[in-house]
Amino acid sequence: MTSDPRALASELSLVLVRITRQLRGRRADAQISLTQLSAIATLARDGAMTPGNLAAREHVQPPSMTRVIASLTDAGLVARTPHPTDGRQVLVSLTDAGRALFEEESNAREEWMTERLASLNEDDRNTIGDAVAILRDLVTPPSGTPTRGR
Amino acid sequence: MTSDPRALASELSLVLVRITRQLRGRRADAQISLTQLSAIATLARDGAMTPGNLAAREHVQPPSMTRVIASLTDAGLVARTPHPTDGRQVLVSLTDAGRALFEEESNAREEWMTERLASLNEDDRNTIGDAVAILRDLVTPPSGTPTRGR
DNA sequence: TATTGTTATACTCTATAACTATA
DNA sequence: TATAGTTATAGAGTATAACAATA
User: Fold this and answer.
1) Is residue A141 over pLDDT 80?
2) Global pTM value
3) CB of A141 within 8 A of CB of A57?
4) Is B19 on the interface with A (CB under 8 A)?
5) Which residues of chain B have pLDDT under 50?
6) Is A17 close to B1, i.e. CB distance below 8 A?
7) Measured between CA atoms, how close is A82 to chain B, in angstroms?
8) What positions of strand D are covered by protein, i.e. any atom < 7 Å from a CB?
């Protein structure tokens, strides 16, 4: 495979779209969606934060995050508390149930993908692992970056 | 990064969801969506096929592919012709315009991702390239596999 | 006036169920 | 009866625009 960035971006895009389609589709039995899980993972990793910061970390617009937070609040997985000094802001944090669900999903989720990956030899798995680490750094914004007004 | 398949599947899922979100969101200026592009890429690579086969190749259900094909037909990018011997079937093929658009997009699309990848050193890019090849094989079904009745 | 968050609204993508036409 | 495709319908995910509350 070429390492020309342009061609690589094309190939990567098409592969990602197809894999993600399957990942979302095959979670019908799961308790929460990938979108919800992604938000929870960020809260588990980085701790409580405002909806605006969470939206920025997740690369979605604030209204989109409002909806995700609402669904997670309804499910009792996150809690909203007033900001101590700024009345406009809100702090979103994982509840015990949210943290428990995250741990549980981390151990049992994505069976389909797990099976596929397990069928690879260890070299290939290591290659994917390295690529994941590189890609994650590539798309993780610095903490607190606002999304508004891009 | 670990090479345990389960942990790797978890990490990979979260990274893919976030990257794909950005890929879709940043195509506002593009002429066609990633879903449409993916279908066109399959037709460009594998040639004309029935809607059912295209759905299977793309890992979507037939009604979903019906809509994608309808939008591409409206845009003049694919053409539908009757199957020569089976009146129930249809053959979907790229038009000249569709092939031209695919070539064009292959050279100019995903600028955002291209820039990010260009900022990496060559080793990292090669790692991602290797991973893409592995992942593509992992999710590409054999030609002609039906989706129905899974 | 600027910032934070929410509400209102709309579009894309995808699915399942039911229907039509052909084999 | 079985298969290929489409239509009808619904739900998730995301966006932009407009609004309310607070700084």
Assistant:
1) no
2) 0.88
3) yes
4) yes
5) 144-150
6) no
7) 28
8) 3-9, 12-18, 21-23
Which residues lie closer than 8 Å to B3 by C-beta, 6 or more apart? A122, A125, A126, A129
Task: For residue A132, list chain B residues with Cβ-Cβ distance below 8 A.
Answer: 1, 8, 11-12, 15, 131
Nucleotides of chain C in contact with protein CB (under 7 A) are 3-9, 12-18, 21-23
| Structural element, H or E, at residue B11 | helix B5-25
Residue A9 CA distance to nucleotide D4 C1' (Å): 35
Least confident stretch, A32-41, A86-95, B55-64, B133-142 = B133-142
Mutate to test the interface with B, among A2, A4, A19, A54 (most CBs of B within 10 A): A19
What is the reported pLDDT for A150? 36
Q: The domain A26-113 is classified under which CATH number: 3.40.50.300, 3.40.630.30, 1.20.900.10, 1.10.10.10?
A: 1.10.10.10
Cα distance between residue B148 and residue B141, in whole Å: 14
As a whole number, mean pLDDT of residues A67-82 equals 97
Among all chains, which residue has been given the structure tokens 């990274």?
A: B15
Task: Work out if A142's Cβ lies within 7 angstroms of strand C.
Answer: no
- By CB atoms closer than 10 A (0-12, 13-18, 19+), residue A11 is buried
Q: Where are the domains of chain B?
A: 26-113
DSSP single-letter state for residue B49: B
pLDDT for the residue B36: 96
The per-residue pLDDT for B148 is: 43
pLDDT value of position B89: 97
CB B51 within 8 A of CB B90: yes
How many Cβ atoms are within 10 Å of A28's Cβ, its own excluded? 6
Decide: helix, strand or coil at residue A112: helix
Percent of residues, chain A, with pLDDT higher than 90: 62
**pLDDT at residue A142, as a whole number:** 58
